[in-house]
Automatic annotation (TrEMBL), chain A:
This is Molybdate/tungstate import ATP-binding protein WtpC. InterPro entries: AAA+_ATPase (IPR003593), ABC_transporter-like_ATP-bd (IPR003439), ABC_transporter-like_CS (IPR017871), ABC_transporter_ATP-bind (IPR050166), P-loop_NTPase (IPR027417). Its EC number is 7.3.2.6. The complex is composed of two ATP-binding proteins (WtpC), two transmembrane proteins (WtpB) and a solute-binding protein (WtpA). It is found in: Cell membrane. PROSITE patterns: ABC_TRANSPORTER_1, ABC_TRANSPORTER_2. GO terms for molecular function: ABC-type tungstate transporter activity; ATP binding; ATP hydrolysis activity. Residues 6-235 form the ABC transporter domain.
Length: 252, 262
C-alpha cells in the first residue's frame, strides 16, 4: 500500500518581517503503484515538497496523508534517496543498507539477509564489505536505493537521485529503477528537472509553477513500456511539457 | 622479517644518517668544546646513565608512575571532555550553558592549577593526574564540539528517513562516527599537551618516582647526565604514545577513511 494525498501550503520565515511562500495550495494524489515525477522550474519548491512528504519539514497549513494516516515526521514508512551522496562513509555497504533494519531492532542475521537481498536487487552483492568511498557515483546511488528499499517503505521519495551522475550512468540507472519498481511493486515520487528523465520514467508528470509553487497540471504519460527515448510519441510529450515549463519560466 | 628491516633502513637512510650525524656532533662538542658535564653531558655519558637506571630497575618504576599519572589524566579527560563536547555540539541549550564556562577556564594555563591540585588532592598520584587532565580536556572538548557541529546535515536527514529519529540514536549512530576524525585529532592534541604537563605535575613530589620528578631530583644533585637521559626518555615515550594511538585510530576507528584524500 502507498497512496499519498497532499494538500498543503508552506512558507518560510526569513526574519520577522519577511516570509516567503514556497508552496501555495499544492494538491496532489499519488496512487498506490504510481510512478509520479514532479518537474518544475528551479526554485519552485520541488525539493521542499518532497521534504515535507518525507517528514523532514512541516507544512505551514494543510496536511499530507499516507494511506490515510497523517505524516507527522520522518519514519520508515517513507524511504528517501537524496541527490547528494548520503551513504554513511563510516559504514560498509551492507551496514549502510541494514541501517534502517538495525533501527527497527531486527537481529543482525536477519537484517544482513534482507540487506543482501536488496544489494542483489541493485546488482552490488559483491561489494558488501566495501566502504562508500571505494564506489563510483552510480554505485553509491544504487546502494542508497537499496538502503531505502530495505526498510520496506510504502512510498519511495527520490530527490533528483541521478542528478550528479554522467549521462550514460544516469540512463542505465533509470532502466534499473524501472525494473525494480516493477519487481517490487513500488510507489515512487520522483523529483527531477530533466524532462527527458520524467518522460522516460513516469506514469504521471506533475508540472509545477514558479514560486510560489503550485501544481499546474498533471500530465499522464501513456507510453508503452519499455519505452523508447527517441520515439515520436515521446518527443511529442517532451515538447508539450517543455512548452509548459517555458511558459512558467517566463511567467504567463 | 629481516627483509622488511633491511628495507626500512634503506628507505630511511637519510633520516638515520641525520640522527647519527647529530649524535656525532653532540659527542664532539661535549668532549672538545664544552668539556663540562654540568653544561652538556656527552652522548656516552647519557648512555652510561641510561644503563645505570635500567640495571637498577628504577627506570621502569619511573615509567610506570608517569604512565599512571598520564593515564589518570587522559582517562578522566576523555570521560569528562567527550560528553561535554557532545552536549555542546548537539544541543543548542547545552552549548549556551557550557560555552561561557569552557571559554573562561580554557585560557588558564594547566600549570596554574597545580596549587589547587595539591590543596584539593594532596601529594597524590591523582593530583598529578589532575594537572594532566586540565591540559588534555580542552582540546578534547573543543574538537568533539567542532566534529559534532560539522556533522553533515545530509547524514542526519538520511538517518531520520531510515527511522533513526531519537537524539540518542542520532548521536551514537550518526554524529559520533562522523565526528570521529575530529575527536581523535582532539585526543591526540590533548595527549600531547597532557604529556607536557606531566613534568611540572610531578615536580612537587607527589611521588618519589616518575620521569618528570627524576628530572628535578637529579637537577638538585647536579647530575645533568641523568637529567638529559630522562628528558630523552620523556621525548621517546611521548613519541611512542602518539604513534601507538595513531596506529590504533587508523586501523580500527578510522578504517573507513583509508585511501580518502583529505
Amino acid at each position: 500500500m502507498g497512496t499519498l494525498e497532499i494538500k498543503l501550503s508552506k512558507s518560510f520565515e526569513k526574519d520577522k518581517s519577511k516570509t516567503t511562500v514556497a508552496l501555495e495550495d499544492v494538491e496532489l494524489t499519488v496512487k498506490d503503484g504510481d510512478f509520479l515525477c514532479i518537474i518544475g522550474p528551479s526554485g519552485c519548491g520541488k525539493t521542499t515538497l518532497l521534504r515535507l512528504v518525507a517528514g523532514l519539514d512541516e507544512p505551514t497549513s494543510g496536511n499530507i496523508a499516507l494511506d490515510g494516516k497523517r505524516i507527522m515526521g520522518p519514519d520508515s514508512r517513507k524511504g528517501m534517496v537524496f541527490q547528494e551522496y548520503s551513504l554513511f562513509p563510516w559504514r560498509t555497504v551492507i551496514r549502510n543498507v541494514s541501517f534502517g533494519l538495525e533501527m527497527q531492532g531486527k537481529e543482525k542475521e536477519e537484517s544482513n539477509e534482507i540487506a543482501r537481498r536488496y544489494l542483489k536487487l541493485v546488482g552490488l552483492e559483491q561489494f558488501e564489505t566495501s566502504y562508500p568511498h571505494e564506489l563510483s557515483g552510480g554505485m553509491r546511488q544504487r546502494v542508497a536505493i537499496a538502503r531505502a528499499l530495505a526498510n520496506n517503505p510504502e512510498i519511495l521519495l527520490m530527490d533528483e537521485p541521478f542528478g550528479s551522475l554522467d549521462a550514460q550512468t544516469r540512463n542505465a540507472l533509470q532502466i534499473e529503477l524501472l525494473d525494480i519498481w516493477k519487481k517490487e511493486h513500488l510507489t515512487i515520487l520522483f523529483v527531477t528537472h530533466s524532462v527527458d528523465e520524467a518522460v522516460f520514467l513516469a506514469d504521471k508528470i506533475a508540472v509545477m509553477s514558479r514560486r510560489p509553487g503550485k501544481i499546474k497540471e498533471v500530465v499522464e504519460v501513456e507510453l508503452e513500456r519499455p519505452r523508447d527515448r527517441t520515439s515520436p510519441e515521446a518527443n511529442r510529450i517532451r515538447t508539450n511539457i517543455l512548452k509548459k515549463l517555458e511558459k512558467e519560466r517566463k511567467g504567463d | 622479517m629481516i627483509k622488511r628491516t633491511i628495507n626500512f633502513f634503506k628507505n630511511r637512510n637519510i633520516e638515520i644518517a641525520s640522527l647519527i650525524g647529530l649524535i656525532v656532533i653532540w659527542q664532539l662538542v661535549a668532549d672538545y668544546v664544552v668539556q663540562r658535564t654540568l653544561f652538556l653531558p656527552s652522548f656516552t655519558e647519557v648512555i652510561s646513565a641510561l644503563v645505570r637506571i635500567i640495571e637498577t630497575g628504577v627506570l621502569f618504576t619511573d615509567i610506570q608512575t608517569s604512565l599512571l599519572h598520564f593515564g589518570i589524566g587522559i582517562g578522566s579527560a576523555l570521560i569528562v571532555g567527550i560528553p561535554i563536547g557532545v552536549i555542546m555540539g548537539w544541543f543548542t541549550l547545552g552549548n549556551r550553558i557550557f560555552d561561557p564556562i569552557v571559554e573562561i577556564l580554557r585560557p588558564i594555563p594547566p600549570l596554574a592549577w597545580i596549587p589547587f591540585a595539591l590543596i584539593w588532592l594532596g601529594l597524590t598520584h591523582t593530583a598529578a593526574g589532575f594537572v594532566v587532565f586540565v591540559g588534555a580536556v580542552f582540546p578534547i572538548v573543543i574538537n568533539t564540539y567542532t566534529g559534532f557541529k560539522s556533522t553533515s546535515r545530509i547524514y542526519v536527514e538520511a538517518a531520520k528517513v531510515l527511522g533513526c529519529v531519537r537524539d540518542r540514536d542520532l548521536i551514537s549512530k550518526v554524529a559520533f562516527p562522523s565526528s570521529m576524525p575530529s575527536i581523535t585529532a582532539g585526543i591526540r592534541i590533548g595527549m600531547g599537551v597532557g604529556w607536557m604537563c606531566l613534568v611540572a605535575a610531578e615536580l612537587f613530589g607527589v611521588s618519589r618516582f616518575g620521569l618528570g620528578y627524576k628530572i628535578w631530583f637529579h637537577y638538585s644533585l647536579h647530575q645533568m647526565d641523568f637529567v638529559l637521559t630522562y628528558m630523552l626518555i620523556l621525548g621517546i615515550i611521548g613519541l611512542l604514545i602518539d604513534k601507538g594511538f595513531r596506529f590504533v585510530v587508523d586501523t580500527y576507528l578510522l578504517k573507513w577513511r583509508k585511501g580518502v584524500v583529505v
